[in-house]
Amino acid sequence: MCRIGLEVLHVAQTEMQFAACGAFLHILKKDLVPLNNYSQTFLQTILTSLDNRDPDIASAWLDTLLDVIDLLPKDIIKKDVRQLKPTILMSSSFSALSSKGFNHRHIQRIKKDILPIVQSLCQDVEYEVRGCMCRQLDAVARGLGLEQTKCAILPELVELTNDEESYVRLTRFRNCGDILSLLDD
């Protein structure tokens, strides 16, 4: 796929998006390009495509990311996926967790592969990243369910509520009601 094709993929039709998901995974499985090149082009495109407004497309890209994470070396995952902007990681892709196409296997993989990234972003040194996470924790919590939210997300919520930056605290308070409706007594 040429560079121009990758740059316009975000406006492509649904069928093309699904085909690209399969092609990107196939390229990695068959080792058709060096891992460094894959990381710089295909992985970055996958990460960017997670922010698609169509929940089915976002879910397909998230599924592709999870499959790719299983195949990539840990150093590439840490370098590329963890440096990903939280708005891309959290927006449409986590909204897809509550869509009917998202099944138990996806949720288990989210817990295993992406939850540590979410927790890391909640503790990022940049206050803008922590503020963004404040806006996204309710979407993450909806996707994870009550038990995982109590164990993994609630401690992050408490820490963000007590953040040293007023911007983070204010953002957390503005979005606090969204996550509280998900919790039990």
Automatic annotation (TrEMBL):
GO MF terms held by the record: protein phosphatase regulator activity
InterPro entries: ARM-like, ARM-type_fold, HEAT_type_2, PPP4R4
Signal peptide: none
GO cellular component, one term: protein serine/threonine phosphatase complex
Placement of HEAT repeats on the sequence: 114-150, 153-185
Protein name as it appears in the record: Uncharacterized protein
Organism: Capitella teleta (Polychaete worm)
